[in-house]
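[#protein-structures] MJ: dropping PTS system IIB component (Glc family) /PTS system IIC component (Glc family) here for a structure pass
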Amino acid sequence: MLKKLNNYFQRLGKAFMLPIALISFAGIFLGISAAFSNPNVIAKMPFLGNSTLQMIFQFTKAVTGALFGNLPVLFAISLAIGLAKDETAVAGFSGFVGYIILNVTINFVLTATKTLAPAAKMTELGQGMTLGIQTLQLGVFGGIIVGMVTGALHNRFYTIKLPDYIGFFGGTRFVPIVTTFVFSLLGLFVPVVWPPISAAIQGLGYAIANLGYFGTFLFGLLERLLIPFGLHHILNAMFRFTPVGGEMVIGGKTIAGALNIYYAQLGAGVSSFSTEATRFLAQGKIPIMMFGLPGAALAMYRTAKPENKQRIKGVLMAGALASFVTGITEPLEFSFLFVAPVLYIIHSVLSGLSFMLNHVLGVAIGNTQGGVIDLVVFGMLQENTKWYITLAIGIIYAFVYYFVFKFVIEKMNLKTPGREEDVAFEDSVGLEADDLDAKALEIIRLLGGKSNIESVNNCFTRLRVVVKDMSLVDEKGFAKTGAAGVIKPSKTDIQIIYGPSVSSIKVAVTKQLKKIA
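AK: finished. structure tokens for PTS system IIB component (Glc family) /PTS system IIC component (Glc family):
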């Protein structure tokens, strides 16, 4: 039971990646547009006041604002797709149908019970507009529930066989039909059950807020500790998109969730951002991603055996660069997570302290990744962010990580990369770095062949595969394909860490699977 539950949360965490990747990318453009259309910035750089440039910036803000304004429906679609075992396009379509039906039904109940709020009091009474429908303000939480329920319905019914006289409506066609029926029923009860649920979620948010700086530390600590299990995405989503991350009235609307608050303030062109929102965002990651982990990489390189340094140099440099630029840390973290878990615990504690220090010192840098892009776009280009404090913390962290990692590795004789004993390193079976087809075929072979593979997906850095028989998998062989590590969450699930290039690898593997007879 526990393994099934863990497997489900693994897939749920992966499903969050699609919308999060989109809004992270869109957030960068929103940040640039907001900064360059700010009157104070224009005063310093008059050329930005050009009418054509300002029109482009306003257009960009309008496009990205549309994305952030429709996050619930994006989550409903993407989670349905991510949780579906097969026929993912049908699942996504059904998620959209389910979201519309749920809100139309809620609108019907509110109208029938004469509780539909007038326009001036919608926010006060917990109502709002979604896709042109006046409904309860379920926020992203509503989209998440729709996606999860739709995913379950899809997996249960997408292969259903109906009697011949109604056989046309069977199989995948039945999924949006049953989704319509289920959400029509659920929508009748939501106006009754949602108010106490909303109050409970808000109570949790207030409890965490009342922990103050210690609550910020706990968030940063847990965010790192959950990475090996792939559950950090769920923690992040809860704080970024629900009242757990705080609530604030911006432009007459009540905005819930730390990231939603930050982007709403960014779009409104405020002169200072809420540190109570940004304490859960990129500012706590910047010292870790840009400075700490590269320092750890240097420590691992310096403590490696002389004969192994050249071998691990490229891997560590690539991991450090990915962390510094994009905030993607798993290639580096998984290089020491399993061979030296004590280092990972130290890393998690330092992460929590980074979040807390930035909060204590009043830093206000938002977004999600924590790499140099976030520092420049959401720190240096915005007003009153105190980005220089994060930079100072980062420089200190570079030295702390380097000396702490170096001391612990040598003191405890930890077998970090390059310190392994009696390990015969194999070349990558003649695979060129850009020969994705050959690499894909080798990955399929290592997974036990096409017949042993149930499904293939990926998140930011991991190739996630469900296999029929784990004993047929050659786990050690994945290092030859450029993998930084392997995780086996269950008897049938295996995750191979490839870093930022994993999406291309997943596409190549899927293509080769279709070619194999």
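MJ: nice. Residues 422-433 have pLDDT under 50 and may be disordered.
AK: one more thing. The chain has 20 helices and eight strands.
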